[in-house]
Every structure is written in structure tokens, then in C-alpha cells.
Design a protein that fits this description.
Length: 898
């Protein structure tokens, strides 16, 4: 210790009182020696705090030395059988490699990744063998977000466990015939195996953070005991550049998510090259996370470095470790021991002297911390036991560990899928895989007999931890009744004379009725992103409270109001601030709670529709992969309903994006009764029947009289279209008019213009879902294609319109492609005209915007007249007369171009 003090004193060139400095350092050394580093840390923190309170400026640094956070003296030895675990890791690495290489033999080129798992194997093995608990009678189970590109290694382990067959390994990335394995973690494709999709990159960290918060929410509300459960998430260091990876780390600190452990696999490489060739990604991430308030544990150096670091009395080795950049570290592992001796230890004569007794092979075997089971176990144990903060582990590894000259630490490692026979032989030897030379060409899978001690050990460890992982529950054990549709009778009835309401208000009314339901009420999870007042939902603040682990430490400024802002430790609302991605993270956690927690929850996430699918579409797709169940409520929806806001706020395409997701049920209702029927259908399907679907419902803040539901309309609402009002059957000329959302009211008004001004009758159809109707049509088309001799199915849209005379016109608040979805199912020989809001939005009144985009009542009438004229039913001069009558400039610029 005195040597280090002397060295530190001598290196301080501006020290005007060396003796005083040494006295302070001697005192610190004495505390460390007699009372331990924790006491020393406490005293130093107290001194820094005092100095700052006395007005002294002390710059903050969130970085520590480039060494392991946990010193050798505080290491906890792994209780496992190190030899068995090493052999199992080697064999799994072999099978993971074989899986990928076999998938790319010949001309198949199916892809896959070898190098990610090879660098993660020690960490995964440590977690599976000693930490990660499966759901059992006594424990809800830990939730593990496994790094997506490492999937071959997870399959290799499941193969040893007997949960995956050799045939499945052989069919890695060959899924169509039903006997293969998906490329990455996909619950949609392996519903009883994978829990969480972690590709696209960046989504795993974000979803895990909100999952950890949701566990706290369930516990605080008394719905499930989650006190002893952990959320682990594995990420790559390159993945941390994704904004989603880092965007919510401050929330994890603010919410005291000490049930969250993030493990960053710092192998220093991404697909194209180094993550930070000219810097140090571990130091960068340490600063980010520690600055955000996380507990940071660095696992940089393996046990072979301990002796060298202990001999580093003058700190030269630590200095070189810090000054060496990641590009150099990558180069060292891509070369050999002689290169490391020359270019790393050769940076200082004393370092060369330090390793003079070591051979080049011994220098080469100086491992990184993420490959050392003792270091990893110690870090995992410390993370699991830490309280009061989320923990991040920054574990340094080698990309492509064990791949030799074909991939180890090379820039090409991530994409390497084919290995030559020399590399395959080297991997077999390095990991002691008992496969003879004459079989190497076939790259066979290796599986030890069930009675071998290693396999017995693997089963014993998982038995001790409650069962095998990953494993996904496909249905909740809870059977929750849903209220009858009549529960929503106040919304199903017509509004009283002179009264108006919006579909948003209808939705809020339905939500309020659900919250009072004795069975389902406590399971409703309203999720807001700072728009409650926009949607008239502020009344829920006082009624059910906003979840806050701290409760409310202040008196709200609006305490004297009926609807004051109330935070509560057992609050029901999840308020995620101006943060659509965070709101979606909360929604995903709640929408998959039936699987993750065996608790049925029903989330309603309400947001500006423009900032939903467009902004967080990747997360919504991940939710679909996870078989989420819940409601996404797109408020102020449509291009023209949000008058005054302008281009960036006006949604004309979210329904097209929703249409691309097969298990998303999208609806654009016009009336309150349609909203109630659709939500009730969702309750039946998602809660009562536990179907893996979710609903996207757009609602508007435009108020108008509500007609109420008439008998027989319910089925048509759910199928996507129904006859709202029928024109005079005796009329000589008639048209079929279709609309959805608020523009249906323009269609109704257009029908009045046609009747009053041109003596033409209209049948008016409400189309709550062009998408659902189109899916029915596509399904019928497919059936007819594959059953040419059987009875041909008639699409629902065709059934509705085939006996109704006249051309067909559809107008919506979305771009034309939305209503174009049903064109193929329009009865043959019938014209179909679509009006839509293609183009950029802008600010103005609703009436002006609808006229600008050519979807209002006047354009509906003009489109109908033009269709009749094209059929020869009326002269074209009638259309010209209508244009003049309604003041429409025939040479008006196309709104798409403006």
C-alpha cells in the first residue's frame, strides 16, 4: 500500500504539500486495510459532500478505472461444478456453430449468427445454472430478455435438456414445413418457448425496463406478489447506439427498479467493425448509466490477470489498460500472444518485464472477464442482491470466441456463417467435443447420453431453479367473466334531443363502466402519455389515481378541483409522460401479463393516433409477435378531425399501418354504439376466449348527435360494414355511399345533397373497418383459389352490395389506399370511386380541411354524379352543373401536390 502511496505522491507535480497529502493517503490506506473498501468509500463520499456544501467546486466524474468493479478480495466463488459447466459450454458452442453452418451448406444461404453466442456462453451458462428461476408454486419466475442473435446457443441448450429435437436443429431457419426453428426469439412462432422478441435491436432494453416497472405496479396494487422476481435483459454494446436502448434508463432509476438487471455484452464489435475503435465503449456506457443513477458493475478482466494487477504497484498496467483503445483490444484478440506481448505489454518496459516469465501461449490465455465463470458469477450475485437501484453489468468479451482465424475478433465475425474444415477441427479441439476426424465433414450435432454426469448436472440445476427456461405460458389460469354488452347501454342509446357527444367521450364512458365492474375493474390498466386532458380523461386522476412508487409527496396545485392530479402508491393509471415509446412499453408489459405473470390485465393505451403506429410501429410489431392482448386507442384520429394542429399532427395513414399486422383488429368507428360493440367484442375475444389478438380503435374529439344502435347492426359492425340508412327503394336513380369515422357524417350529408338537389337516392353504409372486411375477402379468394371444384365463397363486402343498385363511392379521413382495400370484392361490373386525404396535413377548420382534401359532402355528391354519368344514367352536364352549384373550381390543384 505504501508503494502505491509513494507512486501517487511522486506523480503529483502540482502538490505544494506532499507530506500532508501522504498523511491523508496513509489514513485512507489504513481505513481500507482495517475496515474495508466500503467504509473508505463512505468516508470519501461524506468528505466530497461536505466540500460541496461548503461551496467548493469539485467536478463530477462518473467513470472509474478500467478494471473490474468488484475487487478480488470481494469475489464470491461459484458453487457450481466448473468442469462440468465448461464442458457443457463447449458442447453448446459446437452445436450452435453446427446449426448455423449446416443451414448455409450448399446454396441455401439461410443465414444465422455464430459469434454472438460464443461470446455470451459463459454469461448464459451462469444465469441458467445458478440464477434464473422458472415459474413455480413458490415463485413467479424471472423474466429473461435474451440477446436475439444468440438464439442458436439457446436452442443448443434446449437440445441437451430434451426440449428440442435433433430434427429441429437440422431445420434451423427452415420453418415452413413445421419442423424447424425460427431465426430469433419469436413467441409468435414458438409460443410455448420464447417469451420475448429482442430483435429488432434496441427494443429489448426498452421493453425490459417497462416490464420491471410493471412488476412493481402489480405488487403495489396487490394483484401479484412480484417482490422477489427479477428482469434480466441482455444487449450488445453496438446495440446500445439504438435510441430505444438508452432512452428509458433514467426512468429505471426514478422508479427504483432494483428488480432490473441489464447485461451488456461488450465484445467491442458490431457488424461493420468496432463499436468505438477510437474510444472505450465500456467507459462510455459506465458514464451514461452511472450518471443516470444506476449501479454499474464492470467485468473486464479474467482471473489470469489478477496476479499481474496485484504486482502493478506503480499503476503502469492500469494506465496502459485505460489508454489502450478498443480498436487495439480487438486487434490483440485477432492476432496471437506474441503480438499482444509486443503491442500491449511492449508499451512500457516494466510491463514487458512483468510478463517475461510467461510464454506467448500463456499471454494469449489471459481472458476477458465475460469469459471467466468466477468473475461472472460474482457480478451476477452482486447484481441480484443489490437494492435501491437498477444494475447494469458491462462484461467484456471476444466476438466469435473460439472461432479462430475464421472469425475470432474479426470485423466479419458477426456475418460469418461458413467455416472451413481447419476452423471446424480447431473448434472441436478447443472445446473438447468428442467427434472423430472422419465425421467432421458432416459437422454432426453432439449430444451426451442422458446418464452422463454433465447432463445430469444440467437437469439438476434447472430442477433446483424451478424448471426449464425459456418457457412461455400460452394461457392464463385465470378465468375472468366479462360484462354483458348491456352494461354499456348508456353508450348504445341515442343521444337526447339537442345533445352531442364524440366517440372519444363514448370510449371514456365505456372505460368508466369497465372500471366499476366487480370482476374486471381492478385489471383495467389505463396508460397515458400526457394527453389525458386532451381526451377528457382527467376525471380518472382522482377516481383511480396515478401509480407512483413514492405516492404523492406534494399538494397538487389543483387540489381544490374535483378532478385534481392525484398520485398514489396503488394508483391504477400508468402515466408515462411525453413518451409514446414508454407508453407502448407499459402497454406491452400489461398486454402480455397473462403469460408473464399468470394475471389477466386489460390495458387501454390512449395516444394521438399520428404518434402511434408512425412513431413506434416497431414496438407494435413486437407486441404482435408477443401475442399481446389489449386496446390501442388512437385519439384525435384522421387527417381533418384535429383542426388547427397542422401537418405533423394529422393522421391519414395509421390504419394502413395497422392493416399490415395480422393479429391487430383495426376499427375506425363513427358512432358511440359502434365503439361499445367493438370494445365488447375485444373483451370476449381477449379475456373470455383468450385469443391472441389486440385492437386498434381510432376515436375522435368531434361531437355530434348519436343515433344509437338498432337491432341487427352488431354483426355488421364487427365484420366491417353495415347498412346504416336505406334510400327510397322506388327511386329511379340510386347510389351506394360508404364512409367511416367522422367522414361518414359527410357521406350522410352528401346523400342529402343528392336527394334534395338531384333527386338521386342513396343507401348509406357505415364501414367501421375496411381492413377487417378486406381480410374476409382475401380469405374467401384464397379458399376459392385452392378449392376450384367446391362451393365458392362470397366475400362479405360482395354479399352486402351485390343486390344494391348503383355505383359505389367511399370517402374516409385517410388516404385512398385505406378504402381501396375492398376494391377487389366490389361486385363485378360495378364502379367504385374512392375519396381520401392523400397529401400533407395543414392547419384550418374541419370544414376547410375536408373541402381541401376533397372528402366532404360536396365531393361525395360530385363523385356519385360522375359515376352515374360514366354509366350513362345521367348526362355529364349534370356533373358540371353540380360543380358550379357547389362552388368547386375544376382546375383546383391536387392536394397531394400542395
Amino acid at each position: 500500500m505504501s508503494d502505491q502511496i509513494d507512486s501517487a505522491s511522486q506523480s503529483t507535480t502540482n502538490d505544494w504539500d506532499v507530506q500532508e497529502t501522504n498523511e491523508w493517503l496513509d489514513a485512507l490506506a489504513s481505513v481500507i486495510d482495517k475496515e474495508g473498501p466500503e467504509r473508505a468509500h463512505y468516508l470519501m463520499e461524506r468528505m466530497v459532500d461536505l466540500a460541496r456544501r461548503l461551496g467548493t467546486y469539485i467536478p463530477f466524474s462518473s467513470n472509474t478505472a478500467y478494471v473490474n468493479t468488484i475487487p478480488l478480495s470481494m469475489e464470491q466463488g461459484s458453487p457450481g461444478n466448473i468442469e462440468y459447466e465448461e464442458r457443457l459450454r463447449g458442447w453448446m458452442r459446437w452445436n450452435a456453430m453446427a446449426m448455423v453452418v449446416r443451414a448455409n451448406k450448399g446454396g441455401d444461404e439461410l443465414g444465422g449468427h455464430i459469434s454472438s453466442f460464443t461470446s455470451l456462453a459463459t454469461m448464459f451458462g451462469t444465469g441458467f445454472n445458478h440464477f434464473w428461476r422458472a415459474p413455480s408454486e413458490n415463485h413467479g419466475g424471472d423474466l429473461i430478455y435474451l440477446q436475439g442473435h444468440s438464439s442458436p446457443g439457446i436452442y443448443a441448450r434446449a437440445f441437451f435438456e430434451g426440449r428440442i429435437s435433433e430434427e429441429q436443429l437440422h431445420n434451423f431457419r427452415r420453418e415452413v414445413d413445421g419442423h424447424g426453428l425460427p431465426s430469433y426469439p419469436h413467441p409468435k412462432l414458438m409460443p410455448d418457448f420464447w417469451q420475448f422478441p429482442t430483435v429488432s435491436m434496441g427494443l429489448g432494453p426498452l421493453m425490459a425496463i417497462y416490464q420491471a416497472r410493471f412488476l412493481k405496479y402489480l405488487h403495489a396494487r396487490g394483484i401479484a406478489d412480484t417482490a422477489d422476481r427479477k428482469v434480466w435483459v441482455f444487449c450488445g454494446d453496438g446495440e446500445m447506439d439504438e435510441p430505444e436502448s438508452m432512452g428509458a434508463i433514467s426512468m429505471a432509476t426514478r422508479e427504483i427498479l432494483d428488480n432490473l438487471i441489464m447485461v451488456v455484452n461488450c465484445n467491442l464489435q458490431r457488424l461493420d467493425g468496432p463499436v468505438r475503435g477510437n474510444g472505450k465503449i465500456i467507459q462510455e456506457l459506465e458514464a451514461d448509466f452511472r450518471g443516470a443513477g444506476w449501479n454499474v458493475i464492470k467485468v473486464i478482466w479474467g482471473s489470469e490477470w489478477d496476479e499481474l494487477l496485484a504486482r502493478d504497484k506503480d499503476g503502469i498496467l492500469k494506465t496502459v489498460m485505460m489508454e489502450t483503445v478498443d480498436g487495439e483490444y480487438q486487434n490483440y484478440k485477432a492476432k496471437d500472444g506474441a503480438y499482444v506481448r509486443q503491442h500491449f505489454f511492449g508499451k512500457h518496459p516494466k510491463l514487458l518485464e512483468m510478463v517475461s516469465h510467461m510464454s506467448d501461449d500463456e499471454i494469449w490465455r489471459l481472458t476477458r472477464g465475460g469469459h471467466d465463470p468466477q468473475k461472472v458469477y460474482t457480478a451476477f450475485k452482486a447484481a441480484q442482491e443489490h437494492k435501491g437501484q437498477p444494475t447494469v453489468l458491462l462484461c467484456k468479451t471476444v466476438k466469435g470466441f473460439g472461432m479462430g482465424k475464421s472469425g475470432e475478433a474479426l470485423n466479419t465475425a458477426h456475418q460469418t456463417k461458413k467455416l472451413d474444415e481447419e476452423t471446424i477441427r480447431a473448434m472441436r479441439d478447443r472445446f473438447s467435443v468428442p467427434i472423430p476426424d472422419d465425421q467432421l465433414h458432416d459437422i454432426p450435432f453432439f449430444k451426451p447420453a442422458e446418464d452422463t454426469p454433465e447432463i445430469q448436472y444440467l437437469h439438476e440445476r434447472r430442477k433446483a431453479l424451478g424448471g426449464y427456461l425459456p418457457h412461455r405460458r400460452t394461457r392464463s389460469d385465470e378465468n375472468m367473466p366479462v360484462p354483458d354488452l348491456s352494461t354499456f347501454q348508456p353508450v348504445l342509446e341515442p343521444t337526447a334531443a339537442g345533445r352531442e357527444t364524440s366517440t372519444t367521450q363514448a370510449y371514456v364512458r365505456v372505460l368508466g363502466l369497465l372500471l366499476r365492474d366487480e370482476n374486471l375493474g381492478k385489471r383495467i390498466v389505463p396508460i397515458m402519455v400526457d394527453e389525458s386532458r386532451t381526451f377528457g380523461m382527467e376525471g380518472l386522476f382522482r377516481q383511480i389515481g396515478i401509480f407512483s412508487h413514492q405516492g404523492q409527496l406534494y399538494e397538487p396545485v389543483d387540489i381544490d378541483q374535483v378532478m385534481y392530479y392525484r398520485e398514489d402508491k396503488s394508483g391504477q393509471i400508468l402515466q408515462d409522460g411525453i413518451n409514446e415509446a414508454g407508453g407502448m412499453g407499459s402497454w406491452i408489459a400489461a398486454a402480455t401479463s397473462y403469460s408473464s405473470n399468470n394475471r389477466v390485465m386489460l390495458p387501454f393505451y390512449t395516444f394521438y393516433s399520428m404518434f402511434g403506429f408512425q412513431r413506434i410501429g416497431d414496438l407494435i410489431w413486437a407486441a404482435a409477435d408477443m401475442r399481446a392482448r389489449g386496446f390501442l386507442m388512437g385519439g384525435t384520429a384522421g387527417r381533418t378531425t384535429l383542426n388547427g394542429e397542422g401537418l405533423q399532427h394529422e393522421d391519414g395513414h395509421s390504419h394502413l399501418m395497422a392493416a399490415t399486422i395480422p393479429n391487430c383488429m383495426p376499427y375506425d368507428p363513427t358512432f358511440a354504439h359502434e365503439v361499445a360493440v367493438i370494445i365488447h367484442d375485444g373483451l370476449k375475444r381477449m379475456i373470455e376466449r383468450q385469443e391472441d389478438v389486440f385492437y386498434y380503435i381510432t376515436v375522435m374529439n368531434e361531437s355530434y348527435p348519436q343515433p344509437g344502435m338498432k337491432p341487427g347492426q352488431e354483426e355488421g359492425i364487427l365484420k366491417g360494414m353495415y347498412l346504416l340508412q336505406e334510400g327510397d327503394k322506388k327511386a329511379k336513380q340510386r347510389v351506394q355511399l360508404i364512409g367511416s369515422g367522422t367522414i361518414l357524417r359527410e357521406v350522410i350529408a352528401g346523400a342529402e345533397l343528392l336527394k334534395n338537389d338531384w333527386k338521386i337516392e342513396s343507401d348509406v353504409w357505415s364501414a367501421p373497418s375496411f381492413t377487417i372486411a378486406a381480410r374476409d375477402g382475401h380469405d374467401a379468394e384464397r379458399w376459392n383459389l385452392t378449392h376450384p371444384a367446391g362451393k365458392q365463397r362470397v366475400p362479405y363486402i360482395t354479399q352486402c352490395l351485390q343486390d344494391k343498385a348503383g355505383p359505389i363511392v367511399a370517402s374516409t379521413d385517410y388516404i385512398r389506399a385505406f378504402a381501396e382495400q375492398i376494391r377487389a370484392f366490389i361486385p363485378k361490373g360495378r364502379s367504385y370511386t374512392v375519396l381520401g386525404t392523400d397529401g400533407f396535413g395543414r392547419s384550418d377548420t374541419r370544414a376547410k380541411l375536408r373541402h381541401f382534401f376533397e372528402v366532404d359532402r360536396y365531393y361525395v355528391a360530385i363523385a356519385a354524379l360522375k359515376a352515374l354519368a360514366d354509366e350513362g344514367a345521367i348526362p355529364s352536364s349534370t356533373v358540371e352543373a353540380a360543380l358550379a352549384k357547389y362552388g368547386i373550381d375544376p382546375d383546383k390543384a391536387n392536394p397531394v401536390t400542395l
